[in-house]
Amino acid sequence: MSIYSLVKQYEDNFLNNSIKIVDGYNFDQLETIKNNQRYYAGKFRNGNEDEFGYKYFQNTIKPKVKNVAKNIDLDTKDVNIKATKPEDYYKAWLMRRDTVLWMKKHKIGKMFNESSIKTPKYGTFVVKKVNSKEIIRSVNLKNIKCDATSECLDLSGWIIEDHYYTPSELKKEVERGWDKDNIDKAIKSYRVNQKENYDDNYSEANQKGNAQYIHIKEFYGDVPENIIDGGNENIFKLYNFIIISPENEIDNITKEKKDGLILYKKPIKSIGEIYKEVHYDREEGRWLGIGIVEDLIDMQIMKNEEINQVMLSIRLANLVLFQTRDETISRNILTDLINGDIVKVKSEITRINTQNVGLNQNQYLTQEIEKTINDLANFYEITTGESLPSGTPFALGALINQNANKFFDFIRENLGIFWQEVFEEWIIPELSEDLNKKHLLEITGKEEMEWVNKQMQKSLIWETIKNFLMAGKIPTVQDIELVEGVLNERNQEKESFFIDTPDDFYNFEKSVSVDFTDERGNKNQLLQTLSTILQMLGTNPLLIDHPILQKILDLSGLSSIDVSQKQVEQQPQNPQIPQNSQVNRMQMQNV
Q1: pLDDT band per the 50, 70, 90 thresholds, residue 447
Q2: pTM, rounded to two decimals
Q3: CA distances (Å), 66 to each of 4, 116, 372, 453, 533, in order?
């Protein structure tokens, strides 16, 4: 067995065999994903026309999915960095500023928004770790083949992800360590034969295809050693292969199996180190989650049937038809008669009633469909942003809003757990490595500049004192004033200044969290905290430097500059060392 036949075996099993969840419930993962995509786009499987003409698709699914995405509302502001020591609070504040810029550069916020819309849409959202500047990338579920019965991708045992490259895109993968010679062969085969798979037959008799891309298959799974390096076929290793399958499995002349191209291969520890997923709703026996689209498909079918029946009845009601028992009448009264004609008939002519007499039943059906749709999608007025009826008490309105949004809090919590894991294992290591390199951070705003300068003054003064003491010397007033003067001179009469952060500047004791859970409650608590702080500062502005207040601000993701524009003037003077005075070494070290 070759790697190509192994991959094909997995593919054939996935594509041709649906799984049986329970009696009467068979599940086809790929067809379900395609069906979700069709219904979200408002398209029928066989097109929007039939023997009666155009069919209307009254899409009730898309606004429900968007409403869920709106109420989940993930944001990069929920990524918080907190210092554990008071002297590092300003570093945590600077790192939060740096992190926002870093996440914007790597489009992490875009990924948050994508997970908010795709999770309720398809029922599952998958991200993949990539070895490039992207760090992570979302995966098109339509391009994934896996064990459709597994609990998670890490336990799937195998994964095949399809990619479609242009020749220019494929050439760039050489930078990632892919086999350059085989890439050149793949591009030559594509340009000569126009087939998405590898075909080494370059004769003019070979029938050309019409492929637009080169089909790359990325495989993860247990592979026998004899496929990897010719070892023991009974020993399996978890490997990643990136291949192009052969166009024809068997050579027509030699009748031997044909090979494709191996572009890359390497061992891996687990599939979970490559892929991570989150689900909107789960059902035992299948990997793919259940989303809003799948929940509402039956109701959407009924809605479409209803609207199209109504349209047919309207067309019929607009017809003017007559009936008579007189067989001599064979003309069209509307076109063959004019005003004033005398019609001689052996039987009366009467109009056929084509009006829809089932309007009451239609209205009942409409109400039941809408109610079921709203229940399944948690789509109520309060969750869409509409105002409550006039006269609703404020406390009651707040309670209704809280209860109606409990469901979205639950979904947000699942997404928060998912993103917390992604950040801890994939993003934070890259973030720390990048930010701990020497770089510049621009600070704008007079108050922020003064606050940062003051904090850095205090930090550098204490570092200077420690260095003097470690050297067995006692710093003088002139030494302290020299440090202050350097920092004060840097930002005088400037609209902004750049902090030259050295290597390992952010190597302080900290915790990094992605807190999407109970977001509304956190906002209310934050507002209450800030209101209390405002009252305290109004009574005694000097409390801004109290250690407990500094800790509260840091835990809230804030600093003193965020709650007091004038806090710089309220700062107590920096520690001064009187000239020629004796300093207790033990006291300084304890400080």
Answers
A1: low
A2: 0.74
A3: 41, 9, 18, 45, 37
